[in-house]
Structure formats: structure tokens, C-alpha cells
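Example for tutorial group B:
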């Protein structure tokens, strides 16, 4: 029974991580659509204008990372956090006994 609970918790953690990642990816795609609409009107022999759009996109990515305050946890960080919680439960159980 414990194995099923542990497996379910890991699956839920993974799905939560994927949902956050896909939500961020959707925001990037939405920005890129607007970006590409602007790019179609660029005269591509103008390096100055092209560089401005590249810097704009880089600033957007930087701003999004700063807006979230911290990065999304990687799968290894999620696993480490789960192991830490599990260790905490083991010590609590030993203390109760």
C-alpha cells in the first residue's frame, strides 16, 4: 500500500512540474507569435533592427525568469525533496515509538 502511495505522489509531482513547464512554454509561444508578426515587417538587410528584436526576445526571457523569482524545480530537485520528506517521516515514527 505504501508503494502505491509513493508512486502516486511521484506521479502527481511530475504532473505538477509538467503543468508549470507547459504553462511557461505557452507564454513563450504567445510572445513568439507577436514577435514573428513584428519580424515579418522587418527589412532584413537592416542589422540594427534585427539586433533590436533579438535583444527584445532575450529581455523577455530574462524578465520572465525574474518575475517568477526562482526557477521551476528540476526532477532531481523534486526527488531530493521527496526523499527529505520521507526521511523526516521515518524520524518522526522512530520518536513516537
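The residue assignment follows.
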Amino acid at each position: 500500500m505504501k508503494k502505491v502511495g509513493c508512486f502516486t505522489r511521484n506521479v502527481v509531482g511530475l504532473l505538477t512540474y509538467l503543468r508549470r513547464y507547459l504553462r511557461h512554454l505557452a507564454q513563450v509561444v504567445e510572445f513568439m507569435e507577436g514577435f514573428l508578426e513584428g519580424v515579418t515587417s522587418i527589412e532584413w538587410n537592416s542589422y540594427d533592427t534585427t539586433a533590436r528584436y533579438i535583444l527584445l526576445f532575450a529581455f523577455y526571457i530574462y524578465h520572465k525568469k525574474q518575475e517568477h523569482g526562482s526557477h521551476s524545480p528540476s526532477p532531481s530537485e523534486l526527488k531530493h525533496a521527496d526523499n527529505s520528506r520521507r526521511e523526516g517521516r521515518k524520524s518522526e515514527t522512530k520518536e513516537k515509538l
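The first helix runs from residue 2 to 39. Compare this with the pattern of hydrophobic and polar residues in the output above.
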